[in-house]
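Predict the 3D structure for this chain.
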Amino acid sequence: MAIGSTMHTFDVQLADMDRGVYDDFSLRVARHPSETDAYMLTRILALGLEYTEGIVFGDGISSTEEPAVVVRDLTGQITAWIEVGAPDAERLHYGSRLAERTVVYTHRDPAKVMAPWAGKKIHRSDAIRVYSFDPGFIDAAVTLISRRNTITLTVTEQVLFLDLNGTSSTTTIHEHELA
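Done. Predicted structure below.
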């Protein structure tokens, strides 16, 4: 944990009917001083929406060796590289070369996030997916975050039903292709 980070805990109930993934787990999340609440929540949602065996948060904002969320197999090899926000083309290229699957979850306008990647060399760019949420969804949800949180994520037919500390909201999970 970096000096000055704020610790948050999230007790998560996950029901992803699209993938048949159901689990309850707790997360301890260190929010770095330079990390916005919107980025932190998107990072938590990315972990929940990609939840599988071997998934963990990456080493942090200051690490260039790992993404925000990473999945490793039992041998320690990276199988999924999950970026959050607006990574640059070099990071996507690097991650796509290391992992079988590379995705980006963004709380920003996906067209603006993807625009700088146009014409850049990105390994297997046709396989990379970018996921975004309805405009204003993340901004409204971050106002509900406290130091100790309960969160329920229910996904069905690419619609996310979020209950954060007793307040419910809904968004479509939008999928965008790079190529």
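The CA atoms of residues 58 and 66 lie 6 Å apart.
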